[in-house]
Automatic annotation (TrEMBL):
Domain Cupin type-1: residue ranges: 64-216
GO MF term set: manganese ion binding
Signal sequence annotation: 1-23
Source organism (scientific name): Papaver somniferum
PANTHER family: GERMIN-LIKE PROTEIN SUBFAMILY 3 MEMBER 3
Residues involved in oxalate binding: N109, H114, E119
Protein name per its UniProtKB record: Germin-like protein
CC per GO annotation: apoplast
Length: 226
């Protein structure tokens, strides 16, 4: 009986370890795997084709002008500039990426999640109110929030809804690193009210406990990626 309990404990521990191990990008078994645009004579690894290592060049690991702010056109007042495997082929299989976030005065990076990555953010300029919400629990969804100043750092755990808001009258800038080469992003309002095709308004009116006219109004708005 005692041995059976030990085996059961070991089995459960291994199962939990396996589930954690596959929660993020798999470990790399090579130095790099530059994403190849042309699959001819390439190897398919982790969702992308890999360039022959003998053909790799320094530019495969390089992205220029990440210090240059872009033009903020979003109605929420922010612009996210990614540096992931789509921009830097050499990131393929390395399990890391980053973004630059520019905020107009009172600009918002709206509530969103990264399904495949934890995020760590540092404020370069300005003052941001940031926060994340825990998953469902008996005590409800708890909000962790903090006011960040230049040089401050904050962590958003993988998969949890989070946001950043520029509380100042001047522009703000932040850089964030993410624990995936392709972390993904789900902007909550866009996904719920701007999906193609639209979610049935009966479903959304019950889910949000509002009149269907409110849902119809929100679905009629122009939703754009940040």
């Amino acid at each position: 009986m005692k041995n059976s309990m030990v085996y059961l404990f070991v089995g459960v521990a291994l199962a939990l370890y396996s589930s954690f191990a596959y929660a993020t990008d798999p470990g790399s078994l090579q130095d790099f795997c530059v994403a190849a645009k042309n699959p001819n004579a390439a190897v398919f690894v982790n969702g992308l084709f890999c360039k022959d290592q003998k053909l790799a060049v320094a530019e495969d690991f390089y992205l220029a002008n990440f210090n240059k702010p872009g033009e903020i056109k979003s109605p929420v007042g922010s612009l996210v500039t990614p540096a992931n495997v789509a921009q830097i082929g050499g990131l393929n299989t390395l399990g890391i990426s980053m973004v630059r976030i520019d905020y107009a005065p009172y600009g918002l990076n709206p509530p969103h999640t990264h399904p495949r990555a934890t995020e760590i953010l540092v404020v370069l300029e300005g003052t941001l109110e940031v926060g994340f919400v825990t998953s469902n629990s008996p005590d409800g969804n708890k909000l962790f929030k903090k006011l960040l100043y230049k040089g401050d750092v904050f962590v958003f755990p993988i998969g949890l809804i989070h946001f950043q808001y520029n509380v100042g009258k001047t522009p703000a800038v932040a850089i964030a690193a993410l624990s995936s080469q392709n972390p993904g992003v789900i902007t909550i309002a866009n996904a719920v009210f701007g999906s193609k095709a639209p979610i049935n308004d009966d479903i959304l009116s019950k889910a949000f406990q509002v009149d269907k006219k409110v849902v119809d109004y929100l679905q009629s708005q122009f939703w754009m990626d940040n």
